[in-house]
Amino acid sequence: MNAVHAPITAPPEKTELDHRLERVRELMAERNLDYYVSFDPVNVYYMTNFANYVHERPFLLIIGKQGAPTMLAPLLELTHVKMRARCDLEYVTYYEFPAPEGENWYDIYPTLFAENSRVGIESAMPVGIARRTPGDVTMTDVIDEARVIKSEYEIGRTTHACSIVDLGHAMVLEICKPGLPEGTIYSAVSGTMTKKVFEDIPNANFFITKTAAFVWPPTIGHDPHHFPSLATPMEDGGPHVSIVAAQVDGYGVELERTFFLGEVPEHARKPFDVMFRARAKAYEMLRPGQDLAEIDATVRRVIVDAGYEDSILHRTGHGFGITGHEAPYLAIGENRLLEAGMTVSIEPGIYREGEGGYRHSDTVLITEDGYVCLTNAPETLEELILAV
Amino acid sequence: MNAVHAPITAPPEKTELDHRLERVRELMAERNLDYYVSFDPVNVYYMTNFANYVHERPFLLIIGKQGAPTMLAPLLELTHVKMRARCDLEYVTYYEFPAPEGENWYDIYPTLFAENSRVGIESAMPVGIARRTPGDVTMTDVIDEARVIKSEYEIGRTTHACSIVDLGHAMVLEICKPGLPEGTIYSAVSGTMTKKVFEDIPNANFFITKTAAFVWPPTIGHDPHHFPSLATPMEDGGPHVSIVAAQVDGYGVELERTFFLGEVPEHARKPFDVMFRARAKAYEMLRPGQDLAEIDATVRRVIVDAGYEDSILHRTGHGFGITGHEAPYLAIGENRLLEAGMTVSIEPGIYREGEGGYRHSDTVLITEDGYVCLTNAPETLEELILAV
Questions:
Q1: A179-209 pLDDT, tens per residue?
Q2: Which chain A residues are closer than 8 Å to B182 by Cβ?
Q3: Between chains, do B313 and A224 touch, taking CB under 8 Å as contact?
Q4: Top-tier CATH class for B14-147
Q5: In CATH, what class is A152-386?
């Protein structure tokens, strides 16, 4: 694996999707499954390059042990599926929901399996579909598991997606001034990123292209999953925490920084420094074979030892891929080792009510001998004190 | 119920949410349930006014027979939930996913029920959560059912949401010219609608505020769920089909028209007329007590009798509410009568490859003595031939 990956903007070749299918079938074989059914739009997209959103008319991808998988889809969407799918598929359609008796998706679905089969389903499958699944049904997240290690193609797509958030983040730091409302940052930066996505990928799939840019000023920064009013103004000083995230034609990434407008309040220096050291500790441990729970535990210890145990609200990081949040998790409950080809966030945070939040986050690729940070923005306190 | 409803932009009062809870408990009692568990973010929003998106950390709303419902939420999101929820709730939190053994959501969740209870769950609940649900578990869509009949408050919110798509649709008809790319329509009109939403509702919840504006030109119009490239240009003549939809601080509506740029091709006159008559037939039948399947069957007959049986791809309509697509369905498979307080689309369509699509859609409220159309745009062929 090279240290630098060229950005890729093209849709996947059939060979890429064939490799994914092969990997899923290996996992199916390990679990002794005759079929695997995917409902989760994220997994269907991974396998086919077709993205849908969930509505009352389900799309179900049925993968047997060989041959082309079967896509059970609403009639209305058939050409839509065919337009985007880039693998071999057998199509079976149903007319509408609800349909007259005998013609509903749930009338057709069970007929697509050989009798007495062992069928794997996702834990995310709605129970209403799971209960219509015939055979000996096992819940096992086979496709989610296949997604954990990225191919060279996926790394190229993620590298490109990171160039989009790099652009957006540089703009955030450029325009952010005391008094500027949240909504202005969002619309200016999100608009710029979206425009660039469609310049780079004119046929990008709109369903799975989203850009977001926000800044949490000190007043709300202690609450990282708060969702502020768009009128919320930026403040003097800081800490301000930026959140720049994108799903670029399917590929999710993020870039976040703790920064200051004009001056650093005295009380902010220590927590910034502790966050910075916790983050450095995480990077120090990033290489194949490291235990993900141990990384989180070690990073937490840096924060706890500095006296901020009560200021921890979340784990050290999470995976990326065709979502902005997925396995593997750098969390004390995770039972997994780091492997080359994982992409993760590194984002230990400190949250203090009345002061704000302290968190940097990057999108990072694990390589054979360590890691490459795919996002780029200033990191040190000195670089992150912005002129106002 | 009055013929005209004043638009409402305020969040729901506690009394509104209390009424919803009361209705859900009536339905629970009919099904002899001790608890009902909601995972679906749409239903959680309906009950609490708190909207989340699905990630690996679930939010679970547990409704007992009395007292405040319990919200099991990730620690990280506690203040976020509290900021938006406008009903009484008991909070139980868990730290992160995954968490150390014994501290995961699935360790805590089963302890929140009395032993040997009868527990209702949604058909949309992921099977991975359903399998962790204790007691005698029944799949029954109680909250979805409660949502079918709208309160005066909800009708006021929907009325306001319709004013947003009215604005957007007028702009589509104003700017649409041959050669104009899809992406320009989208960004101009969607931007205008979003801006108006946040002017009207400065604290609108961004998670559940979305606006979309597209036009299917003749080349792709036969494929209504196609998703075109943003570079797709508008054409001379038509039929063009507009899709203007919004979720306005939670409330979903749509407005669509078949229109022509400059001239009407001769082959388009008959299908437009048939669509227009099919639609008129639907409106003629809109009043409480009518069978939804019978409406769809009657409307289909208009289209079939005109020789366009093969040009039907979908039902006559669907419900609206806090989504843009929900029960009840005006579909030949639906088993339900119209009732006052339902909000539905009326949108029979005709789709002809090589010609395009023919469909108008409105957001319509069923009243005690008929209906009120809540969206407004030109309807006749003459009005929909636009100067270029």
A1: 999 989 998 999 999 999 999 998 899 889 9
A2: none
A3: no
A4: alpha beta
A5: alpha beta
